[in-house]
Amino acid sequence: MSEKRKGLIIVNLGSPDSASASDVGRYLNEFLMDERVIDIPAIPRQLLVKGLIVPFRKTKSAKAYQSIWTEAGSPLKVITKDFAELVAKKLQIPVVVAMRYGSPNPADALKELQKKAGGQLDEILIAPMYPHYAMSSYETALLHITDYIKTTNNNIALTYLKPFYNEPGYISSVVEAAQPMLDEKYDAYLFSYHGLPIRHLKKTDPTKKHCYSSGACCEVKSLAWQFCYKHQAKETTRLVTEKLNLDTQKVIVSFQSRLGSDKWIQPFTDKLFEDLPKQGVKKLMVFSLSFVADCLETLEELDERGKEQFIKAGGETFTRSACLNTSPLWINTFADYCEGYQTTYKDLWGSFN
Predict the structure, then answer these.
(1) Is the distance from CB of 189 to CB of 285 less than 8 angstroms?
(2) 157 and 351 in contact (C-beta within 8 Å)?
(3) pLDDT, tens digit, for every residue of 300-345?
């Protein structure tokens, strides 16, 4: 019997086609109209997104993208593409990239994958590049790809990478990337994760009674942990802190990039940038572990606006540990995940079939 013909699709968030206001507006429209991002009924969501948010935010967002745009294009897309090419050199299967929003879309990715495979595939590995589970990131990216493939090619087996927030190889990759910066002494270590509305945590809680039931819910073992973004972010922080031997009294977890007036996970990163210098924190090291590739939220929101806020408030040194991007250890670690998806790392993968 012939060996299964396999392929790998690496999935990331996406970016506008350019940093122009019109392209950014189209991108924001697609992103914010996702029912797992703004989870309100379709008509109110359309009125909110198309009538208020996008018209007022696209020009400001375009300026933010313009400040980080490179000659090769969006940093996120460039890094993800480079990552996929480096991973492909480690594997014996074709590898392509798909984006949740923008291009390449699932149709383009599947077409390219089949072309690289020389025809029909028997199994596709799908890897959302999100360490932590959230309905507005990991879940929507995974389902966007798998729903399309199941609709058009129902005979292909689909195997997907689960959130890897506590996987030892991932943690080691984060630690290796941060280690060279620890020659300096810092007053605090800020682990900033992308923000979420609290209702998202409650909605994905399978018990419907654990998340935010108490101030210590993230420390009380529960089935909810499998889908709890906040718990997973805290666990990543704990593991990295331990492996780097950081002073736990100096470690802070915060959340960035909120939208609207709903209740979001606190504390807020931007508020801490203003408050920490008043508390004696002059030298700050920042980790941005929601992302494995540098993007708008790291390069502009943290490195530009965040640093400016911190320094203006009285801070002196602002250092951020870069995302994993295409670091050799991360390339090798991820390739190992894919090679061992049926053996060593089988618990890290799931199947729809």
Answers:
(1) yes
(2) yes
(3) 999 999 999 999 999 999 999 999 999 999 999 999 999 999 999 9
Task: Give yes or no for a contact between 164 and 131, defined as CB atoms under 8 angstroms apart.
Answer: yes
* 281 three-state secondary structure: coil
State how far the alpha carbon of 180 is from the alpha carbons of 92, 170, 175, 246, 350, in Å. 33, 17, 9, 14, 35
Indicate the pairing of strand 157-161 with strand 349-351: antiparallel
Q: How far is CA 114 from CA 98, 109, 119, 132, 342, in A?
A: 13, 9, 5, 29, 22
Q: What is the pLDDT of residues 95-143, one digit of tens each?
A: 999 999 999 999 999 999 999 999 889 999 999 999 999 999 999 999 9
H/E stretch holding 189: strand 188-194
The reply to whether the predicted model has a pTM over 0.85 is: yes
In this predicted model, what pLDDT tens digit does every residue of 43-87 receive, in sequence order? 999 999 999 999 999 999 999 999 999 999 999 999 999 999 999
CA-wise closest residue to 119 among 224, 258, 5, 233? 5
Q: Which has the closest alpha carbon to 127: 333, 344, 343?
A: 333
DSSP assignment letter at 162 = P
Adjacent-strand bridge partners of 255? 193, 268
The number of residues making up the chain comes to 353
CATH numbers and ranges of domains, the chain: 6-164+328-351 (3.40.50.1400), 168-321 (3.40.50.1400)
Do the beta carbons of residue 165 and residue 172 sit within 8 Å?
Answer: no
Reduce the DSSP state of residue 156 to 3 states and report it.
coil
